[in-house]
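Record 1 of the preview.
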Amino acid sequence: MSLTRVHLRQDGQTLVAGLLAPRVLQRGPTCLEVALVATNATLLGGDHVRIELAVDAGMHLVIRDVAGTVAYHSRGREAWWDNEIDVAEGASLVWRAEPLVLSQGASVRRTTHATVAEGGRLLMRDTLVLGRSGETGGDIVCDTELTYAGRPALVERLDLADATLPGMLGAHRVIDTVTLLGARPAATTRAFRLAQPGAVARAVGIRAHDTALDATFEEWATQIGAQSWRG
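->
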């Protein structure tokens, strides 16, 4: 297993390098901005990537991907990707992930577990692309469990192992998702409202850069005050 850990504490931070090495981009009194940089070819069959992100009370963490990730042909071996997220009271985490591209023959199992304390906020962008140019793409199963203040907020399984079957995605190759937890978006935003404070906006499309969720992500980032953290 390759572990990448970023823990933003009130007295500093802990960074652990793996297949994705964290690099500090900017610091502020209560904010840290980190880029995840691939140190090797990722994602190959048999790889197991685990990302642990933790933010202490009153702190703000921004995670950026330098480039998209390609899941290559698995050669009969499944690849795993686990995200573990912990956001404390009054803390915030923003993660704008670049696309995960599933090459022909790729097989990926991904889990995302996030715990957000009351008063904490989590904003994530996730884009899945089925195949490189001319490909129909590989398989992926995504299991997501989010809790807020100890209460379930979202439990979802997104199974794209047979995405080419009738009634699935049709000609679409891109699934784009923006998730907000810890705040309720404006009523004008087209999104699925969660039982806890938060929402999920999702769109499908032909191209990763053309799903119209950029505006949603920026609107929600502004709503939780992400632009003011560096000051």
